[in-house]
Specification:
- 2 copies of one chain form a homodimer.
- Chain A is mostly helical.
- The first copy, chain A, has 6 helices and 3 strands, in the order H-H-H-E-H-H-E-E-H.
- In chain A, a hairpin with a 2-residue loop joins strand 2 and strand 3.
- Chain A is elongated.
- At the A-B interface, helix 2, helix 3 and helix 6 of A face helix 1, helix 2, helix 3 and helix 6 of B.
């Protein structure tokens, strides 16, 4: 796990870290929970079938990606979502989808402008 | 609970593979290219500073995630985007963002309904 974290930190593009962070189902559960409001580490751990140190390691991956930040006050570490990186990931995907849909539209326009083939005629 | 059950059954969530596939910058370049239209493996390799076998390995990750499919006709393998999985990833992120924004709205409504504190008064 520490090795994976090291590998992740060696990568450059922030999107690498965000998509990597979201590729784990436990981390997605943590992000889902934090989108509903701040939570302590033990609150984050509650629905997950894993040890607290394992949850802390996942939290470190989320913090390294910029999706989450946490602050320790007294003995309690409180975690919050950082919506900016989630928006960047959404933006990247939407741009790809838009490119793809525009291509489909152009293809549709092109096909609509083509003369009918004999097989298409209904009479 | 559903999450724990899934873990027990050792099923991998398709989103794990999609976000994992998108966490690599070369694979994102390949997805960007394929959103502009189908391409052969050597066309995909052109902007990437890596060997053809390395590109084929990345292609295998993209195909395993369901983001891309490819078909070999004669000696040429042609790759195409599969938009469904990209849509699933987008949907997951948008749902999280919506949850987060609704929470902010509720917080705003709550604060707007609170009596002003003496410090906020301008007169």
């Amino acid at each position: 796990m520490r090795y994976i974290l090291k590998q992740m930190l060696n990568q450059r593009d922030p999107l690498d870290l965000v998509f990597q962070a979201l590729s784990d189902p436990s981390r997605r559960v943590m992000v889902e929970r934090l989108c509903r409001g701040p939570a302590s580490v033990s609150e984050l751990a509650r629905p997950l079938a894993m040890s607290l140190p394992a949850v802390v390691q996942h939290l470190q991956v989320l913090e390294a990606s910029g999706l989450v930040r946490s602050e320790k006050v007294g003995r309690v570490r409180t975690c919050q979502i950082e919506p900016g990186m989630l928006r960047n990931a959404e933006k990247w995907i939407i741009e790809r989808r838009t490119t793809w849909e525009r291509r489909l539209d152009r293809l549709g326009d092109y096909l609509a402008g083509q003369p009918e083939s004999p097989n298409d005629r209904s009479e």
